[in-house]
Design goal:
There is one protein chain. 39% of the residues lie in helices and 19% in strands. With 422 residues, it is an alpha/beta fold. The chain has 3 domains: 7-111 and 185-288, Rossmann fold, CATH 3.40.50; 115-144, no CATH class; 292-367 and 375-421, no CATH class. The strands form 3 sheets. A 9-stranded mixed sheet has the order 4-3-2-1-5-9-10-11-13, with helices on both faces. The protein has a 3-stranded mixed sheet with strand order 7-6-8. Strands 12-14 form a two-stranded antiparallel ribbon. Helix 10 packs antiparallel against helix 13 and helix 11 (312-324) crosses helix 12 (336-346). The chain is elongated and about 70 Å long. The N and C termini lie far apart (58 Å). The model is unreliable at 144-183 (pLDDT under 50).
Length: 422
Amino acid sequence: MAAKATKKWTFMVYMAGDNSLASAGTADLAEMKKVGSTDEVNVVVQFDNGIGHKTNRYFLTKGKSLTNDKVASLGSTDTGDPKILQGFIEWGITKYPAERYMVVIWNHGNGWDDEDLYRKAARTMEVEIRRRGVTVERGRNNPVAIDHLRKISTGHFHRALFGTTIQQAIRLRGIAYDDNARDFLDNIELKNVVCAVKKKLGRKLDVLGMDACMMSMAEVLYQLQDGVMTTVASEETEPGDGWPYDSVLSALTSNPDMTPAELATNVVQKYLVSYGATSGVTQAACDLGKVKSIATAIDDLAKVLLANISSSAFVTAILQARTQVQSYDTVDYIDIYDFCELLAAKATLPAVPSACNKVITALHIPGFILQSGYKGASMQHSHGLSIYFPLGAISSLYATLDFTKHTEWENFLKQYKEKLAR
């Protein structure tokens, strides 16, 4: 249990900067320091900036140097290790108690799917990579489980949260580690972290922000529901500038009585204002207390799609909707609202529009989605939540997610692809 609250909010930012975003992290720290902590708001940061592989913790203040704000030096840390993230959050709760807590995970992002990263590693290292008990990529050497690598890794094994590359992380026959090797925290591990924090705190985290790419997905948010009340995340990739922390913190410190929903909504608004009209960005705040209703609606839709998948005309309607739907930098991610609108308009079977409209109704602001927006014509059909609908083969890791286990969506994808292949 955390200490008795003395402030309204503690705003915690976990900055995994041991990668290409190091300079952006330094800029974001400067933005945060323009506001800093106040009598009602704690602003704390853990930053691995990749310089000398040193990680520091800061209690940020306005007017003082960053050196004076440093409250702890952790030496070398693996930012993708779930224990490091959990340790930071629990430290922040204990050291800087407040009535409410927002945690921001700052780094690269890849939605739910981390499979491609391991495929790259397997091709580089010619090994068979296994993730969550599933063979991701077959190689010419013996299989290597990522969990095993973590257990035997040294302090020089540097990893980046939601990292985008893994290179030379493994050497067989006396396994050795390159100092620049990178792994990442996946969504199953993130779920374990927020649930562990919930146990310590005695309740869910108020807000989890993901200042990272493509994390506003049905699969990701469903995974987090047991430990988080509200999320802020993007369907599309984020520019290097990320969130406008000075604007976000100025609003919070001016009104520290904000509810979690109000703070999350405020982040979305400030983020969108900070980018130009043609920038091609998205951002959304979601109420995870309603994520089960979204999953139920998508499950019902999948069942209707499966019931009619034998119709060639219906499969053509699905194909047309999938071709026209709003997609993102990872083209296998589509906006579920836009897909339902397109499919409802194209399908002649009466049960389909009804099932599509149930998904749309569940998503409507202020329902599951508290606030959503975009900038740029390329993102104009974004409504706040994406879902996996691959153009190619279905990832072998998709079956390991909670969302996949509890809905028929993957079964629909499989049947649809089989029908297309005939």
